[in-house]
Amino acid sequence: MRSVCLFLSLLICGSFVGAEESRPNLLFIYLDDFGWRDTGYMGSDFYETPNIDALAAGGMVFTNAYSAAANCAPARACLLSGQYTPRHEIYNVGTGPRGKAEHRRLKHIPGVDTLDSSITTWAHCLQEAGYVTASMGKWHLSKTPCDFGFDINVGGSHSGSPPRGYYPPHPGAPGLKDADPDEYLTDTLSNRASSFIRENQEKPWALYLTHFAVHTPIEGKKELLGKYKEKPPGKLHQNVEMGSMIEAVDQGVGEIVKALEESGSRERTIIVFYSDNGGYGPATDMDPLKGYKGTYYEGGIRVPFFVNWHGVVEGGQTSDWPIIGVDLYPTFCEMLGAELPEAHPLDGVSLVPLLKGQEEVDLGTRALFWHFPAYLQSYGKINGEQRDPLFRSRPCSIVRKGNWKLHEYFEDGAFELYDLSADPGEKVNLIEEEPEVFQRMRAELEAWRSNIGAPVPSEPNPEFDVEEERRAIEKAKAR
Known about the structure:
30% helix, 13 helices, Arylsulfatase, C-terminal domain, alpha/beta, 479 residues
């Protein structure tokens, strides 16, 4: 009898281990301020990303992928919560007014700067489903990701920038105190990710590798700077420091894939690659898209995105369907077999049917939304790709449906309507030429704001000075 019990016990344990090993892992590589064209596969003529390009070639590349916000904190809050900004109320980095008071016509909506601890994230769902969850790198939504479904935290805090640059020391960054004094931060995080993979090869895991790169400071990897200084500049990209930063990310991706292969988990690991918003304007270029990080033109919100899923997604595919950051929550849960929370409203849809090639998928008929009731001041160096040179964004709402995209600006009641299929650079405002489209899009945007409870700033700012604003705009344009 004892031997029978032992046999049954071994059989059950063997079945359990087999089931655990067959569950897919998730490697989610999330970059900071990484532009739509900053990889080789998207056409960079200066940056080198062979490892990332190989993963993209082995999966499905999305050419109309969007962040749910144009800058760091709100984009991450949307991603983790699966909700648009009016639900979690993180609208900007911080809650204080941005830019000069005399240039702001309205009082902004401050929102909050910390993700509500009652929110159930997709990491909670994966944790509940039995996954080991880790966040490595930038967090930016609270003191620690461990309060939001992550078992492990390396480097994550409320800070939005690399802790005192890309070389040690890294004060205030959990798990990075023992970093090699000469090790580049991107390398440190990639190495920790590789170690995590090797240590958990017999368990299902989900790794949120949220690099600080390529956020400011623009500080290149020393060993790569010489290479990019000697390299002929491209017409699209030329920044030496940025080139070395991007290649450091790519080198890390190569090492992580090697760790997956050596641990025997490559074929059961889903790899998702994404960026939190558009590229940093002074150092990169999203041409032909207009704008950059902080603007709600395409260059500020359209980002690189691909899914590499062995045995499910055939390589060499491209999708033009518009998708957005809030879609990743239900996507991750369906990929890994985790249940969605019943009492937590989600604004996105799962991309799994699209990835599996199911014919009934039609993402072109739904609308995507953005809401930014605040201000984000200009870089001061780039003036030609925004509505004025003083702000990257003033309070606005945006909707895209099909190929149409409508901007609404609350200060002056201005609207801009673009046909992205013919005009991805958003150069020709079609408000006058397409009145029916305009009215239809406007009604949909207003209905969405009403349904979701989006606050619209309307109170005048008593410090606003119209003459000072005019002088500042003229001075900036003359530079």
